[in-house]
Amino acid sequence: MLKKLTRAPAVLVAAALLLTGCNGQNDAGGAAGDDPVSGGTMRMLQNADFSYLDPARGWDGGVNAFYRLVYRGLTMQAAGDAEDPNAIVPDLAESLGTASEDGLTWTYTLKDGLKFDNGDPITSAELEFGISRAWDPEIGIGSPWLRNTIEAPADYAGPYQSGDHPGIETPDEKTIVFHLIAPFPEFDSVLAQPNAVPFPVGSGAGDEFINDIIASGPYTLETYTPGSLIKLVRNEHWDPDTDDVRKAYPDAWEFEIGLDGATIDERLMAGQGADANAISGRVQPATLARLQAPDLAERVETADAYCTTYMGMNTTKAPFDKVEVRQAMNYAIDRASLQTASGGSQLADPATTITPPSVNGHKDFDLYPSEGNAGDPEKALELLASVGLQDGFSFTLDIRSQPTMQAQAESIQQALAKINVEVELNVIDTSTYYETIGTPSQQSDAAITGWCPDWASSASTMVPPLVDGRLITDKGNNNLAQIDDPGINARIDEIKAMTDLDAANVEWGEFDEEVMALAPMAPLLWEKGVFLPGENVANYIPNTSMTDLTIIGLKDPSAG
């Protein structure tokens, strides 16, 4: 059980950077400082395919960035180059929502002239339908925020099985009204989630959107070869006059998939032909030293860490059902070795809390200290001996099929071997990884993954989704520990009820420490990012979770 705090909340010291699941801070560089010109084809080089083209299913940083190119919602996160890139702003709606006095009803009015890529109008009916897909038991495995905030009967199973959503009203074509389970002052942020988007009524059943989409954003799908290529072209029915965020400079986007990380880096460094128009994810650790060359250094962009890489431990499986064992893992892990395995101090810092320092609401603490962050095997062995496990045990660790994560897993193997714990690695393809570990019946004893806050207005989206026992689901589960502690659940409700968001953020920092006393996870790293865009790329502002693709363009669209 968690302790309940009785002291008055302290005054919040503002964090150096307010962050969301889609924004970070970068050093000004050539790509971020040049003005894009309309036209040309932007290219993305990437290792793995997106999890899903269907936003009701997908929900991770990479695919969320893709969704911004092809889908629109009532609200969205501001542009990556905005004065406050963490703000929530209107998108399809004329303004942010209007809440009733009791906070249980939110009303939005749609803009005029909204259309899908086939020319059909987007009205409140299409929004109600698209949003209600989040309740479908098979499809709705993406962001849980709609289901967690909008009122619906327990047996409501989405539009295909249950029909219209009983918690959403559409009194006319331009008005949509949401009835909430409980007051939630951050509801505008909920509607900025990737699955809160419109679709034509009746579309998208079963696997219809596995290989195709119906776009509402500036681009639509021309080609999709799973695991190989995605090509987007302009949606001729997107009206930029209705869109204050997306600039959509390129005429087309091409995503080249299935490339080895080292190959991507080599191509970007060489910058030959169309690769001058390319971007990618973070560079490989082995590439860092070569980026010091003058012709490359001027292209380098960096982004701060605001996500936490952690090892979640399944508390429903022995021996992780014992808090002493979970605490022992936190003591034993060598975070200095993990930092080295992840590229050194340029790319990662050891993590001791769930909420990163750059996120509003972070509290600085370390409940499991060790000299030089190298681990404390003796303390870990004491804890294991206290529950009769001094001879150790073995467990299976789920990891993604990526070199850095495998190196991290090997570091954990070596550290835990010092306390007689054997770690077997279960390597899962990246494209299916999140679905697998998010399905309790398929996850193993533990998993390495990461978590970023979904919006910046509070820290309410950082720790709670990972430990709220009431949110454990058969699919799309984010509580990998499967911990269902009444004290945790009560504290979440207590802090969420606070109307002073600054004071609430102080309590979220305390809550982080309370959760870590129970150790359902082991924070590992705060991973920063180094990026190398092509020489012809402009207005590229990278992020360690989700880069805003909608503002990127080319300096010379005729090149490449």
Automatic annotation (TrEMBL):
GO terms for biological process: peptide transport. The keyword Signal applies. Gene3D superfamilies: Dipeptide-binding Protein, Domain 3, Periplasmic binding protein-like II. It comes from the Bacteria. SUPFAM superfamilies: Periplasmic binding protein-like II. Residues 342-361 are annotated as: Disordered. GO terms for molecular function: peptide transmembrane transporter activity. Keywords: Signal. The keyword Signal applies. Residues 88-463 form the Solute-binding protein family domain. GO terms for cellular component: ATP-binding cassette (ABC) transporter complex; periplasmic space. Residues 1-28 form the signal peptide. This is ABC transporter substrate-binding protein.
